[in-house]
Amino acid sequence: MSFIYSKLTSFLNRISDEFHKSFLFTLIFTVLGFIEDQWVRSFFIGLYPSENFLGFLKKNNILRNHLFNPLIVLVVFALFLALSLTPISESLTQTLIIAFVFFFIGSTILPRFFINDTENIVLFNKRDIYSIGFCLILISVAFFFISIASVGGIPLLKPSIRYLLKPAFTMPVFLIIPGTGILASTYLKDFQEGIISRSQARFRFLLLLIINVGILLALGYRTPLLAALLLLIIIAYFGNIISVWEVVIAALVGVAAIIGIGYYRSIKEYTISSAIDPFYTLKSRADFTLHVLNLLDIIGGNFGLTHGKLLASAIPGSELGPRMMVGKLIAWRTEVTVTPTLIGQMVADFGKVGVAVGMCILGFILGIGFKIVRKTKDYFYIGLYALLLTYAILGVETGILDIQVLFYFAVAIFIYLIAILKPLFNQ
């Protein structure tokens, strides 16, 4: 495996070096370097609120040290449930209790027995990691232009053509999210080593966010845009690049963006009128998704119905994608995609038993990641944990069903298992 990693990173390093040497990228980085320098020296930075702005937030121990604990997934899930316009069934209530209890066990109790020292944690070369992130963003940008060319316009300006976008072209665009996380983590490393200042790190994080907004917003996607924002916030939070009050403000901005984009799209597509409360789109979406979960809970029972077929449908080449398969399960409609929540796939595949096992495993992955971050403060593990937590939080509604997201979790499991099992092989 180390041989494959060495060959892959060597190849990506060469690609990254060649692009950085090219005239176009030399010009781009020169311009960005000039703008960054002006940003750092700008008079207006002095007018920006200080670190101690809204100081009462900083004094709160939970906000200061545990805001992005894995248990935030349960908090978000509870808030999502509260948005529903109709009450949930007794059976689903039991399923949710099982989910919450076993996630708590996996994220908070089980990690105490593993990785109690940092000797066996694999450390990665910053240059290799940077090249991986840089190449992922290059691929994303290339497929962004292919996507808009394939539909003959920008979906944000003409929402109807969004449904003409081809998954084969848009899926690579979403590589900008892990690419952003990887690049941001390397900038965090530079900040930790004193190579760049905190102001420079903040500028680079802001620049990455602007690039994500430009690409993902143009395609009319809300969830990936929120993923990019949340990912950068989590990395910056653990790296002390942003303050607690900025995290709170950014979270409010993210929620407002979800509501605003959804409201705009709904009006443009004539699904609601401008007289409707903007919050209605959020409430009705939560209500519909929980109704879907209730139906899946009924058909899943205690031991499930599809027995892994729903999860396996995420593999490219499957006749139906996982969210289309959910549509078929609950309404026999395969032409629509339906979000099943974080536990929808678990209960449909393996019932309440599957929810217990699945949520415990998910909690354990996040719990181990959080423990490593707290112990090492290592830039790579901060970026990796931020990526996993981002998709776990967003998965509260959408589920963790996309093949690329499952791949991120698979990579994390492999890396964490090395740290867990290495002591056994060293005995």
Automatic annotation (TrEMBL):
The keyword Aminoacyl-tRNA synthetase does not apply. The keyword Membrane applies. Keywords: Membrane, Transmembrane, Transmembrane helix. The chain crosses the membrane at residues 19-35, 67-89, 95-115, 136-157, 163-184, 205-238, 244-264, 353-373, 379-396, 405-425. InterPro entries: O_anti_polymase. It comes from the Archaea. It holds the Pfam family O_anti_polymase. NCBIfam families: glyco_rpt_poly. This is Oligosaccharide repeat unit polymerase. It comes from Methanobrevibacter millerae.
